[in-house]
Design goal:
By secondary structure, the chain is an alpha/beta fold. The protein is built from 18 helices and eight strands. Helix 8 (152-164) links the parallel strand 3 and strand 4 (170-176). The longest helix is centred in the middle third of the chain and has 19 residues, at 119-137.
Length: 358
Amino acid sequence: MFPKSRIQLHIHLECSPHASTIWEMAQHNSHKLPFKTLDELKEKCVTKEPTTLTNYLKPMTWYLPMIKGNCTAIERIAYEMAEQQASEGVVYSEVHYRPANLANMNTSDDISGTERVTYRKVLELVTKGFQRAEEDYGIKTRSLLNCGRENADEAREVLSLCEEFKDKSVVGIGLSGPWIGPNQDLEGEEGLKKEVIEVFQRAAQLGIHRTAHTGEAGPPSSVDRHVKFLQIERIGHGYRALGEKALYQDLLKKGIHFETCPHSSYLTGAVPANCAKHPIVRLAEDNANFSVNTDDPLLTGTTLDDEYRLLQQKGLKDFDIIRANFNAVWSCFLPPQEKKDLFDHLKKVYGVAKTQVL
């Protein structure tokens, strides 16, 4: 029995547009895609075999340029993403996105009609799309604003928006994207600039919730640094932390939440395809705090049902998947009363007490 009401804490707006929407926009804007048909676009966007994180994200380079700075497109993909999640039974979702990926910071051009779309404008457009979807489908959706590892100015501006819209349309700040350091041959998540660390520490002082992608492309030591220096409450992915016993036990003790994404864990190469036991199975066995999410629906070609089904094939029981949704409620970044209301909703739907699932 899959959960009837679902919570999602790790899904990327930039990686969730419908392929049909991308195709329609390309035709309307005369944007050249490297495909001749919609079916070909759908096929090429989905990664089918394990690869690197960089290769996995490559399709974004095909379609993001025509969404970036396009006000109509930004609001539309936000609305359609929430609509799709509602159709999958999601009642609450925290959506990761990096405003820098969608903004157009060029000066407005009255001659060409180009509009300057700031980070703030991106947030306004996304919020408008989410609010329309809430009115139409009842799904509550909030923004989790991400910044990159390499840009301190971006991080500071994102923090400013998080502070201004705290407990409103924005629930927290996140860190995302691969980073290649000057002394690294392979991509990873080792890079933490001093200025970005200071932004997250300031966020903690302001009571702004914090999460970061780590332990996906980087080693266990990367997870350790992110938890200690950024003071994060949740980890995006984090599978490789399980390879370091002392670190893993510390994360369990602290109750750090793992935002897990089953299909993408294989496709990005974060989890070896031939591993005897998937890290998510071990998290369930150890009663760890984790949730189940789709991550990048356009790139994985999956729904939440597909993610749950994969975990069942790996050994998870219905109870584990239901408990993951309750974990998501208590680890979400909503204000206390809204979090309680959400828990009460799930408790009513499943007819269980807190002690039965936590």
